[in-house]
Amino acid sequence: MDLLPTDEQSEIAASVASIVADRQSADEAVTDALWSAASEQGWFGLGLAESAGGVGYGLAEETLVAFELGRACAPGPFVATMLAAHIAAAAGETELASTFISGAERAAWVELDGQGGLIFDGVEARFGVVMGRAPSVNTLDIGSATAAPSLDQLVPLHRVDDAGPAVARLSGADAEAILLRAEVLIAALCSGLAAGTTAQSVEYAKDRLQFNQPIGSFQGPKHRCADMAVRAEAAITQTRYAAVAVQTSRPDAAFHAHAARAVASGAAITNAQVNVQNHGGIGFTWEHTAHRYVTRSRIVGTWMGGRFDALASLLSQPPAA
Amino acid sequence: MNLDYSDVDLEFRDEARTWLAENLPTDARPPDGQPMREFDLAWQQTLFAGGWAGINWPKEFGGRGLTDIEQMIWYTEFARSEPPFTLNNSCTFVGNNHGGPTLMTCGTDEQKAFHLPKILGGEVVWCQGFSEPGAGSDLASLSCKAVVDGDELVVTGQKIWTSYAEVADFQELLVRTDPSAPKHKGISWVICEMTTPGIDVRPIQTMAHTTDFAEVFYDEVRIPLSNVVGDLNDGWRVAMSTLSFERGTAFMADQIELVAVVEELIEEARVRTGPDGKRPAIADDEIARRLATARAEVAALGAMTIAGISRNRTTEMPGPEGSMIRLFHGELHQRIYQLALDIIGSDAYVLTGIDGDGVWTGPYLQSFAYTIGGGTSDIQRNIVGERVLGLPRNK
Description:
The complex is a heterodimer. Chain A is α+β, with helices and mostly antiparallel strands. Chain A has 2 domains: 7-170, Butyryl-Coa Dehydrogenase, subunit A, domain 1 (Orthogonal Bundle), CATH 1.10.540.10; 173-315, Up-down Bundle (Butyryl-CoA Dehydrogenase, subunit A, domain 3). Chain A has helices at 7-20, 32-40, 59-71, 78-90, 94-101, 172-207, 219-247, 253-283, 290-300, 306-315; strands at 107-113, 116-120, 127-130, 136-139, 146-148, 157-160, 166-169, 209-210, 213-214. Chain B is α+β, with helices and mostly antiparallel strands. Chain B folds into 3 domains: 7-90, no CATH class; 126-233, Beta Barrel (Butyryl-CoA Dehydrogenase, subunit A, domain 2), CATH 2.40.110; 251-388, Butyryl-CoA Dehydrogenase, subunit A, domain 3 (Up-down Bundle). Helix content of chain B is 45%, strand content 13%. In chain B, the strands form 2 sheets. A 4-stranded mixed sheet of chain B has the order 1-4-5-8. A 4-stranded antiparallel sheet of chain B has the order 2-3-7-6, with no helix packed on it. In chain B, helix 4 (93-106) packs antiparallel against helix 5 (109-120), helix 4 crosses helix 6 and helix 9 runs antiparallel to helix 11 (377-388). Chains A and B meet through helix 6, strand 9, helix 7, helix 8 and helix 10 of A and helix 7, helix 8, helix 9 and helix 11 of B.
């Protein structure tokens, strides 16, 4: 019983952090160099068995990657491509899985609404993941999709009339497992976002002088920072618990995955909003990256129905074991 | 990262479950006074006889020498056994959860040998004497004075907000032993025997109708110097260790009990009529979301408790991260009872006690203490800000 990352896991997190560190201020979503580095580090097969062409770690390690992506507010279809590899592998589409694992193909995130589908991070993607009741990898023709102005400039947005034909689809226990995996990874992204804004606010509160002292010495900003830290800590800790629960197929895995997404999505959005306030005027500018956490958390935090869906799903579960 | 119990853990859990089923008291806990003291001590004695007192205390002090994980398992099993009282309200709380651990960390061999077995064995009740009328959040400004006279300290002054003072045998007492030193450097932490002449305990009734709260007056109370824990004038350091236990691990039982409280509340919301007067309360969107949020946050609190144990494994005392858990826990505890009163309809007009099954209004009133005692939420935020995040102190 231990909820802190092992030394090996901390090394994975550090190596991920080292290549995404400067991504929040980038002008383009994903450079080829970053995608190659991620592929070389094995992100897309991290949680797949070696027999399936993966690295042989599990969801706990994938969670570390997603957390670091969130913390750096790094854009790109990384988590969607990780999930696409899992769906393809579980559906027996070995060849398709290997193209995701190697990074040769990218998968966009697809959300369905009443008018069709919304494609996130689809610019370079020929596939999309759809996290419905029967989660699937679909082929995507981004050229025929309609580009829409995105709330988050680094997350390109397109509209399609339908989500395209499925090339790998899951049902039953496989479907449930991938949905929980997706929930935990979203929770990890959100936890990272919540931790990233906490770090920004704390750093600013130490540096910014007013009334001849750092604003972090005043209880207003100090207490907002403390609340941000607590929200981020609750989010990542519950997410880690959920990651292990899902990975080891505990009977209360769904309970904890829903709980993680509920806590983490709320933490990401709230912290991002408070972070702008903590920065005052500079926080309202385009130049500062505080707004990127606001728009990213509003996108990632509402995928798969967002906090309200996570809460409804959680309440329908039996008590945790 | 793993959630696996060892074979030893699992055996311990089964043993605890079986023992609790056979030994849990079924009668209600008396709300105050000597009957309450006798009830709480009898339970502590039963625990001790069964080997369930001081699970994570070293064997040399009568404990079982196991880890915080086993202590957590015990609290989990206790909460699941549907006990008629909550551990957090017990008058054995101070001795078990911060007086005892402070002696273990800072006491002399004689102090440990004399007091720790009595605490564990349910022979004595401890109370806390930290706050004063003029020293609350600014604890270090305390002025209750103690003058060295031969091999004794002579204490004159006042303490306040002392729970269970009337039924306590000993008190962890902070006194000013050097008024000329800077405020943090002239304090001593002493063990005060509550029967010493010159002590006057005056009860204070709380908003939750409990009467175990008190102010304590000291008129030339003579305490042997051998009762000083740590060195003379080193009391601030010792008090910080007391508070790190109080903020770090003392509320583990309550944190775990909240799981059962939320599940009980969800059941209430299924059977009680909701705000529309027709459907069950749980069919109301706002109530449903608040219940689900409580479930999610209690789960997160449990995970934070485990992570805290993981972190404390390598340290003698809980670190400042404990204040993050304490802050989250105190406010969550309050939100849960606030939600309860929104769910229980006309029962919210009826006062209950603070212990027992299906009681909500008493615990609701009591819940206001959770963001005040052991350092207010504002103080916890200062600690998180300054000691966890490294923000500067106010000049």
